[in-house]
């Protein structure tokens, strides 16, 4: 193929040369002189025109032998008719020369040949391959030389480093730390913060294949099987040998930002007098590790505790001594960062009621002690309360044991007392203090909760209460008598809570270690689920998860049980709201024979 291309290019070049020759010959041909046009109307003297034309050949051949002979002949021989030809000689100035034949030589001068070569024909392929190989070999040699130099330099550096190390080892002798120095390092705040953070990550890494680097300072349950017949199933148990053993669970709360974090408060361990009396632990449901995420403590038993709703890193506690304390998950310390004073301006009796109410921009901490004193606090300053209120029925102080605010309410609330009476109260206005009494229980009120389910109907006027009289009672805040009394328990009922998602479902726990779940749309005589724990230890506190699918239950031995509910009890059908309204009307008719307006 290459030879054919070369031949074709040579043929093209020959044709080009022929064209150049023809062009050169055409250029050598004489160009005829333009003919001058003369008007026909003018008279022309031909002889005068001829005489005016110079003869270039006469000028060229003036010196030729023929011309000289003519001159001499004219000089010697006389001219006849001189006078007659005088006029013609004057008009004819030049004689016509005699023409003769000459030899003409044709000389062809070829122009310089102009040849153009394309790039692809300038270098032979074999030669090009040879050049490429030579260049590659040269580059390989240079790379090998460079590597050799780097290896030599590395060896020299390693030798120098080893020599320096040997010199340093010879010069510097490591000093063994004393026990006091070791203890000082281990007790420093930097070391404790590092060890605390690192130990959490290591615990997560050992138990889970998840993002163990996630930190909670600033859901998800384990599925152990599917059984459609089980409406309530235990998933996990949280306990710690040091921090929960022989301690009674006193309160629960859930983190608003991280729903997998559960706050649990504990009272004192009488068998460990050297341990802190009050403990608050943060347990993590997301991971399988068995140790708490955070540990906080104080020098008085913690009777109630909660997360600050709008500051999820802040933990608030009410103590048996009456102090209000605050811990911060970001602080890296287990002791409180703030404490209220033990003075007459604040609490001096056990604080069983603690809750943050309000909005993001305007919220307060509300606390009530057993002496009936209500205090309103700013979370930024616990040195003294912003406002106080004495809860009294006429002249008698109300010993408050439990408290509940309706959903979104910041002024009106309910309290339960040691004598078994419930009271509606207000923080502000003309009716500040105790307003109405709801009598029905025959023992101290242990649990109290407003209905907070949101859906097709509004049942925020309903609330339930539990007592040591072995009963759970259903109330309407417009009536002073209970709508219904649930008497299935065989011992003290220590706590009761409405489901946050189902308007007709609530749960209760008692001193026999039994969990009862009720659906008043289905049955008011017998609970839909009744579960007895294996240990039969008293269950004294409980809390629903925000999605209504879990129950968190604490006992008097410090254990926390996580139970999972089936969807049937957690997610209400559309007709549940109407059925509940009908059920409440029936209850109302039995009590007052007046229909209930919803």
Notes on the protein architecture:
By secondary structure, the protein is an alpha+beta fold. The chain is built from ten helices and 30 strands. It has a four-stranded antiparallel β-sheet with strand order 1-30-29-28. A hairpin with a 2-residue loop joins β6 (302-308) and β7. Residues 64-92 and 218-229 have low confidence and may be disordered.
What is the element layout, followed by pairings?
Elements: H1 2-28, H2 46-52, H3 56-60, H4 65-76, H5 86-91, H6 125-171, H7 179-186, H8 189-207, E1 232-238, E2 249-254, E3 261-266, E4 278-284, E5 294-298, E6 302-308, E7 311-319, E8 324-328, E9 338-339, E10 351-358, E11 363-369, E12 373-377, E13 387-390, E14 392-393, E15 396-397, E16 400-405, E17 412-417, E18 422-426, E19 433-438, E20 445-450, E21 462-467, E22 472-476, E23 484-486, E24 493-498, E25 505-510, E26 514-519, E27 529-532, E28 539-544, E29 550-555, E30 560-565, H9 567-570, H10 575-592
Antiparallel strand pairs: 1-30, 2-3, 3-4, 4-5, 6-7, 7-8, 8-9, 10-11, 11-12, 12-13, 14-15, 16-17, 17-18, 18-19, 20-21, 21-22, 22-23, 24-25, 25-26, 26-27, 28-29, 29-30
- The shape, in one word, is elongated
Question: What percent of the residues sit in helical stretches (DSSP H or I)?
Answer: 25-40%
Give the end-to-end Cα distance, rounded to a whole number of Å: 101 Å
Largest sheet: 4 strands, antiparallel
Low-confidence stretches: 64-92, 218-229
Quick check: average pLDDT?
81
Strand content: 25-35%
Backbone CA Rg: 59 Å
Topology, number of strands:
30
Total helices: the number is 10
Strands ordered across the widest β-sheet: 1-30-29-28
* Class by alpha and beta content: alpha+beta
